[in-house]
Write a structure and sequence with these properties.
Helix content is 63%, strand content 0%. It has 209 residues and is mostly helical. It folds into two domains: 132 residues, no CATH class; 73 residues, no CATH class. The termini are far apart.
C-alpha cells in the first residue's frame, strides 16, 4: 500500500550536492533521476486521473462535491494503486509492468469516473423513453480537432518523458521507440474511429452531422 511521507523533498545526497559537496555526485547519479522530478511526474499523473473524472461528470455535480471526490481519489485511492506497481507492491512482485500509466492512471481514473457516473445517472435527454440513445454530435468541430492535436502533441513529451532518463545510448533508443509507437498509436486510433463510424453513423465521426 506504500507509505506516508510528509513534507517530501530532495534526498540528503541531492541537498549535499546543491551545497557544493562533490562527493555526493555519484550517489545522486546512481538514483537515475531526481526525487523532486519523480514527485512532479507523479503529481501530473494523479492530476490526469482526476481529469478523467471531471470529463465524465462535467456539468452534473456541484463543485465542492467534485473537490471532495478528487481529494479522496488523489490522497488515498491513487497512491495505493500506484504503490502496487511503481512502489514495489504486490503487482510489481508478480511481474506486472505499467510504463506510462495506462492501468494505474487511466484504469484508476476510469473506474472512479464510472463510480461517479453510476451515482449521478445519465445526462438529461441523453436517452429516449424507449431506451434508445439520442445522438450528441460535436457542436464545434474546429475546437474538437484542436483538442485532438493538443493531446497528440502532448503525448510525445508525456510518453517520451516516461523513460525518466536520457544519459545513455540505450535511453535514447528506448525513447525513440516510445515516440514512434506513440505516433503510430494515435494514427491507428484515427483510422479505427473512421472505419467504425462509417457503418454505424453513416458518416465520418470527425465530420459535422
Amino acid at each position: 500500500m506504500g507509505s506516508i511521507t510528509f513534507l517530501r523533498g530532495p534526498s540528503a545526497d541531492e541537498l549535499a550536492l546543491l551545497a557544493g559537496v562533490e562527493g555526493a555526485r555519484d550517489a545522486v547519479i546512481a538514483t537515475d533521476y531526481a526525487v523532486m522530478s519523480d514527485w512532479f511526474f507523479q503529481m501530473v499523473f494523479v492530476a490526469t486521473a482526476a481529469s478523467i473524472v471531471s470529463g465524465a461528470l462535467a456539468e452534473r455535480v456541484k463543485l465542492w462535491s467534485f473537490f471532495v471526490f478528487t481529494l479522496v481519489l488523489t490522497a488515498i485511492i491513487y497512491p495505493i494503486v500506484g504503490a502496487w506497481t511503481w512502489g514495489g507492491g504486490w503487482l510489481s512482485q508478480m511481474g506486472f509492468q505499467d510504463f506510462a500509466g495506462s492501468t494505474i492512471v487511466h484504469g484508476t481514473g476510469g473506474c472512479a469516473a464510472l463510480a461517479g457516473a453510476l451515482v449521478v445517472g445519465p445526462r438529461h435527454n441523453k436517452f429516449r423513453k424507449d431506451g434508445t440513445v439520442t445522438s450528441t454530435p460535436p457542436s464545434n468541430i474546429p475546437v474538437v480537432t484542436l483538442g485532438v492535436f493538443i493531446l497528440w502533441f502532448g503525448w510525445f513529451g508525456f510518453n517520451g518523458g516516461s523513460q525518466l532518463a536520457l544519459g545513455s545510448a540505450a535511453d535514447v533508443l528506448a525513447m525513440s521507440h516510445v515516440l514512434v509507437n506513440t505516433n503510430l498509436a494515435g494514427a491507428a486510433g484515427v483510422i479505427a474511429a473512421i472505419a467504425v463510424s462509417r457503418p454505424i453513423f453513416g458518416r465520418m465521426i470527425c465530420s459535422p452531422a
